[in-house]
Write a structure and sequence with these properties.
Elements (H helix, E strand, L loop, with lengths): L1 H9 L10 H6 L3 H10 L4 H17 L6 H8 L10 H20 L5 H16 L3 H10 L6 H9 L6 H12 L6 H15 L3 H11 L2 H10 L3 H14 L9 H7 L4 H11 L14
Length: about 280
C-alpha cells in the first residue's frame, strides 16, 4: 500500500520543479505521519514512508531540525532524481550542517558520505557543477583521492571547463594547504581531458616540478610539447630536463635571443622606428 501511495505521489507531476498535488494534501498530516512512523516496526512500508516524510520535511520541518535528511537516511537508497532539484538542494544544505555537528561530537559520517556520493553525480549530470563542488568542499571530501576520482569520473568535454574554473576561483579564498589540494584536483581534471597547457599552468602555480614533468611526458603532440617547454622555461623556477635534445635547448633558453630576433624580422620591427624621423 505504501509503495502504491509513493508511486502515485511521484507520478503526480511530470516537472522536476513543481510540487506534486498529493504532497500538498499531505502537508497538514505531517505530524500525524511522523507519529505513525515512530510507532511502526522495521519493514519495507516504513522505509517507503520515510521517503515521503523526507520530501514533506523539506518545507514542513522546523528550522535547524534537519528532518528531511533524517528521514532520507532511514529511507530507500537512491532515487534522488525523482523528487527534483529543490529536494536535492535542500538535502545538500542539511548534510553540511549535520556533517559539522557530527565532526564536532566525534560521530560517524559514513551514511552521510554515501548520500554525498549520490548527490554529486546527480548535480553534475544536471548541469549543477558548482553545487556539487560546494558540497564536496563543505564536507571536506574534495581533496580525498576517492572523492576526486568520483568527480573525475563525471568530467567530460562538455563540463570540464565549468568545474575547473569554479574550483580555481574557489582556491583563491581558502587557506593553505586546502588551496593546493583543490589545485591538484583541477590539475587532474585538465589532464584527463588532455588540456595540457592548462594543466601545466596549474603545475607552475603549485611550483611542482613533478606535475610539470608529468604533463610533458603525457603530451604526445610534438608541437604542443615544445610550447609547454617554452612555458616552463619562461617560468624559470622548475629545473626540468629531457632526453629530447630540442626540448632540452628550449628548457634551457639556449636560443631565446635568436627566437626573439626571428620574431622581430617576421613582424618587420627589426629596426627601431623614430616617430620624429622625416616622412613618418
Amino acid at each position: 500500500m505504501a509503495l502504491v501511495s509513493r508511486e502515485e505521489i511521484r507520478a503526480a507531476t511530470s516537472s522536476m520543479t513543481s510540487v506534486p498535488k498529493p504532497l500538498k494534501f499531505l502537508r497538514p498530516h505531517y505530524q500525524g505521519l511522523k507519529d505513525f512512523f515512530s510507532s511502526m516496526m522495521d519493514s519495507e512500508n516504513k522505509t517507503l514512508l520515510a521517503d515521503v516524510l523526507s520530501v514533506l520535511g523539506m518545507t514542513m520541518a522546523g528550522s535547524g531540525t534537519r528532518e528531511s535528511l533524517k528521514y532520507k537516511l532511514s529511507g530507500a537508497k537512491g532515487g534522488l532524481d525523482v523528487w527534483g532539484f529543490e529536494y536535492v538542494k535542500n538535502l545538500a544544505g542539511e548534510i553540511g550542517h549535520e556533517w559539522t555537528h557530527r565532526k564536532t561530537t566525534d560521530q560517524s559520517t559514513d551514511d552521510l558520505r554515501e548520500l554525498v556520493e549520490e548527490i554529486v553525480p546527480f548535480n553534475i549530470k544536471h548541469g549543477s557543477e558548482p553545487e556539487a563542488c560546494d558540497l564536496l568542499m563543505e564536507v571536506d571530501l574534495l581533496p580525498r583521492v576517492d572523492s576526486c576520482l568520483a568527480v573525475l569520473e563525471h568530467v567530460a568535454e562538455n563540463n570540464y571547463s565549468r568545474i575547473a574554473l569554479y574550483l580555481t576561483s574557489c582556491a583563491s579564498y581558502v587557506p593553505e594547504p586546502e588551496d593546493s589540494m583543490i589545485y591538484n584536483v583541477v590539475f587532474q581534471i585538465y589532464k584527463k581531458v588532455n588540456r595540457f597547457p592548462e594543466a601545466l599552468r596549474i603545475a607552475i602555480r603549485l611550483n611542482d616540478a613533478q606535475l610539470a614533468e608529468e604533463v610533458l611526458t603525457s603530451c604526445e603532440d610534438e608541437d604542443i610539447k615544445k610550447q609547454l617547454a617554452f612555458m616552463v622555461a619562461r617560468h624559470g623556477a622548475l629545473n626540468l630536463t629531457s632526453e629530447d635534445e630540442a626540448l632540452t635547448e628550449i628548457l634551457g633558453n639556449t636560443h631565446l635571443s635568436g627566437h626573439f630576433l626571428s620574431l622581430a624580422r617576421d613582424l618587420d620591427v627589426f629596426e627601431v622606428c623614430n616617430k620624429f624621423q622625416p616622412g613618418l
